[in-house]
């Protein structure tokens, strides 16, 4: 792997390349940023926080276009098939550019490596492991012991089959050598309702969804599945600290252009994305919303990261049996 996930998150911002500085005339008109999900979701929220600063840096408007459908693949495909002239970009995610490869085994209309030019990542959202208090466990180690002693007895909920939370759960169960029943929901909100009611024993989702209920005692978040703690639940350990080293689970967002977009345009947009992500006011708001920003380097770094993510997650998607075909 050319770049480790840990190193990816710690990459320093780099100076604009000479090619980026020497790209005159672009953008001469507003740039379209496709968000392949509905307005109001975390991908959309993060994009709307970033694009004003991106517009300022570019000296031209960046206009968000929500184009939802087919798990984010509809809008992503539209950008993949757009002219490679810097007129259109997409705010891709781990779902659209990694998990979809395993889910849409016959019908995925694009290849995330071949059909896109990676520009820059924006945020990385952790997944947390949460249980209902009725299980009587207060640590991840106790929970793992309970699952291993009772194979198949307990159920876990996620916001949908094949989503990042589902694949996170599959990875967790594989890592500890345990079995549990998956209960997929049509979104995180109904999953949360059943988790609060004890209809499912455990849930996998983001700290932003869980924090209020963990802090009130209605639920127990046992671990955050990244190297960083949650600002909303600062007392919750990482999975490594909780005794499961190496286990990571998260979603990420990042900007992609159609393949064939000139390198100077990609580099200039990379500069704009990094400038927005590192802006102190924007960073503070992203952290407040539990959308931790990624300070990344070059387009090549992001491309290498994408390939490593495909190697990691696609086998887990296929092992889960989830499919969108």
From TrEMBL:
Keywords: Signal. InterPro entries: BUG, Bug_dom1. Residues 1-22 form the signal peptide. Belongs to the UPF0065 (bug) family. This is Tripartite tricarboxylate transporter substrate binding protein. It comes from Roseomonas haemaphysalidis.
């Amino acid at each position: 792997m050319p770049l480790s996930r840990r190193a990816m998150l710690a990459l320093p911002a780099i100076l604009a390349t000479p090619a980026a500085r020497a790209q005159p005339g672009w953008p001469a008109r507003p740039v379209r940023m496709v968000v392949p999900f509905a307005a109001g979701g975390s991908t959309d929220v993060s994009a709307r926080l970033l694009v004003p600063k991106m517009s300022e840096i570019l000296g031209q408007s960046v206009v968000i276009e929500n184009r939802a459908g087919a798990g984010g693949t509809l809008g992503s495909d539209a950008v993949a098939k757009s002219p490679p002239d810097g007129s259109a970009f997409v705010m891709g995610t781990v779902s659209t550019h990694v998990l979809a490869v395993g889910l849409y085994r016959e019908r995925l209309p694009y290849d995330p490596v071949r059909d896109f030019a990676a520009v820059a990542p924006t945020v990385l959202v952790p997944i947390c492991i949460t249980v209902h208090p009725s299980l009587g466990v207060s640590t991840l180690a106790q929970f793992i012991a309970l699952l291993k002693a009772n194979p198949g007895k307990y159920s876990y909920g996620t916001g949908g089959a094949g989503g990042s939370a589902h694949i996170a759960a599959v990875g967790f169960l594989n890592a500890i050598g345990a079995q549990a029943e998956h209960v997929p929901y049509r979104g995180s909100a109904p999953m949360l309702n059943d988790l609060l009611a004890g209809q499912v024993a455990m849930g996998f989702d983001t700290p932003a969804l869980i924090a209020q209920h963990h802090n009130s005692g209605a639920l127990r978040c046992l671990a955050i599945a990244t190297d960083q703690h949650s600002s909303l639940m600062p007392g919750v350990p990482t999975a490594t600290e909780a005794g499961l080293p190496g286990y990571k689970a998260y979603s990420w967002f990042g900007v992609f252009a159609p393949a064939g977009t000139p390198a100077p345009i990609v580099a200039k947009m990379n500069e704009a994305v990094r400038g927005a992500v590192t802006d102190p006011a924007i960073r503070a708001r992203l952290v407040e919303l539990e959308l931790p920003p990624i300070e990344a380097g070059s387009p090549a770094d992001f491309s290498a990261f994408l390939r490593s993510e495909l190697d990691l997650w696609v086998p887990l998607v296929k092992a889960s049996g989830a499919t969108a075909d």
